[in-house]
Automatic annotation (TrEMBL):
Lineage, highest ranks first: Bacteria, Pseudomonadati, Bacteroidota, Cytophagia, Cytophagales
Domain named Chorismate mutase: residues: 265-358
Cited InterPro entries: Aldolase_TIM (IPR013785), Chorismate_II_sf (IPR036263), Class-I_DAHP_synthase (IPR052899), CM_dom_sf (IPR036979), CM_II_prokaryot (IPR002701), DAHP1/KDSA (IPR006218)
Coiled-coil region list: 264-291
Name this polypeptide is given: chorismate mutase
Keyword Metal-binding tagged: no
Organism this protein belongs to: Pontibacter ramchanderi
Keywords, sorted A to Z: Coiled coil, Transferase
SMART domains reported in the protein's UniProt record: CM_2
Alphabetical GO biological process terms: chorismate metabolic process
Keyword Disulfide bond recorded: no
Pfam families linked: CM_2, DAHP_synth_1
Length: 362
């Protein structure tokens, strides 16, 4: 797939391009008041609002529906900001197009479903509109890529990806874990693809918006999406992650934009990959240490109190073990002092818990 990311309106020469607006359209007054505030925020060029809201439980606020598209059009006329909203099927796509929405967002719960993605792609055949495809809820790069390809095959040239994090068993401290390496991998596979960061749905709370946005800029993202509401406390959805337009202004001012040449971006992607590899290795080390602890605990069971003792700690054996480890370290090019420190610490911990307890050592 070849994407015209660099020529796209989705990539502004004044980076980052910022999309902001409420999680949900709630009323015309809420939309206008928020949009007029956002118009004053330097860097914001697109106003977003959720019109149809897929919610986990029935009975919660499902969005205002098509009336919200009228309000979106009013915002466009009154402020000159371009507009964006999520569409999840062909009917919504047609309605958004009829109301002149500039950027269509494919939501994370839609990207997971190739039937829906294809239905939207079919509704977009021959249409000139910008489309941003969010990553699927689960960390499956093929689904994300597949949705982009379906849009591309329908003739959409203004195409970009939006990274909103992934639903994982333990996402803490995030709402959706960023797993940056996936987004960077996508970018490597599709060079030139406009890449946005939906900082709000990754963060899930105001305090994390800044570090998440900064990380995205450091990694060379083209744009940010941040949810903003004139009165977040009264928001009908995602109240805890929305910020007022003035707060968005301060957030954007605080961000440091890197002027990253292509080479630096490549380097950042490489750094991110290596960091991930180290994290995985650390996990493996932790698993091994935990297994070692369990085995030494079994050994400890044989070290009964002195009077019943059948086996004594054997310092000669330990010296041999350590010598062997240091020999291995030196042939593997690992600093011997590091290895010695680690194993001496591990061993004395074992001694403290299993031997000293039984009075086997003073
Ligand atoms: C949203 O942008 O308001 C939204 C519902 O996002 P996502 O599809 O990322 O859950
Ligand atoms: Mn939201």
């Amino acid at each position: 797939m070849k994407l015209a990311g660099q020529q796209s309106q989705l990539v502004s020469h004044k980076r980052p391009m910022v999309i902001a607006g409420p999680c949900s359209a709630e009323s015309e007054a809420q939309m206008l008041q928020t949009a007029l505030g956002l118009k004053k925020v330097k860097g914001v060029s697109v106003f977003r609002a959720g019109i149809w809201k897929p919610r986990t439980r029935p009975g919660s606020f499902n969005g205002v529906g098509t009336i919200g598209l009228e309000w979106l059009r009013t915002v466009k006329v009154e402020t000159g900001l371009r507009t964006a909203c999520e569409v999840a099927n062909a009917t919504q796509t047609e309605q958004a197009l009829q109301h002149g929405v500039d950027i269509l967002l494919i939501g994370a719960h839609t990207t997971v479903n190739p039937f829906l993605v294809q239905e939207i792609a079919d509704a977009l055949k021959g249409v000139q509109v910008a489309v941003l495809v969010k990553n699927p809820v689960n960390p499956d790069l093929a689904l994300w890529l597949g949705a982009l390809e379906r849009m591309h095959n329908s003739g959409i040239t203004e195409l970009g990806a939006m990274h909103r994090g992934f639903s994982t068993l333990d996402s803490a401290p995030y709402r959706n874990h960023p797993k940056w390496e996936h987004a960077l991998e996508l970018r490597q596979q599709v060079p030139g693809l406009a890449m946005y960061c939906d900082a709000s749905h990754i963060a899930g709370r105001r305090s994390l918006l800044r570090p998440v946005s900064q990380r995205a800029l450091d990694l060379g993202y083209d744009g940010l999406m941040v949810e903003s509401h004139h009165n977040p406390a009264a928001a009908l959805s995602d109240a805890q992650q929305q910020i007022m337009p003035q707060e968005l202004h301060m957030l954007l001012q605080a961000l440091k934009q890197q002027h990253t040449p292509a080479e630096k971006l490549k380097q950042n992607a490489q750094i991110e990959k290596l960091r991930k590899e180290i994290e995985n290795l650390d996990d493996e080390l932790m698993t091994l240490l935990s297994r070692r602890t369990k085995v030494t605990a079994q050994l400890g069971d044989y070290n009964k109190p002195v009077e019943q003792q059948t086996e004594t700690p054997d310092p000669v054996r330990w010296d041999l073990v350590l010598e062997n480890l240091l020999h291995q370290a030196s042939s593997a090019g690992i600093d011997q002092t590091v290895v010695k420190t680690i194993f001496q610490e591990v061993r004395s911990q074992y001694a403290r818990t299993h031997l000293y307890n039984y009075g086997l050592s003073s």
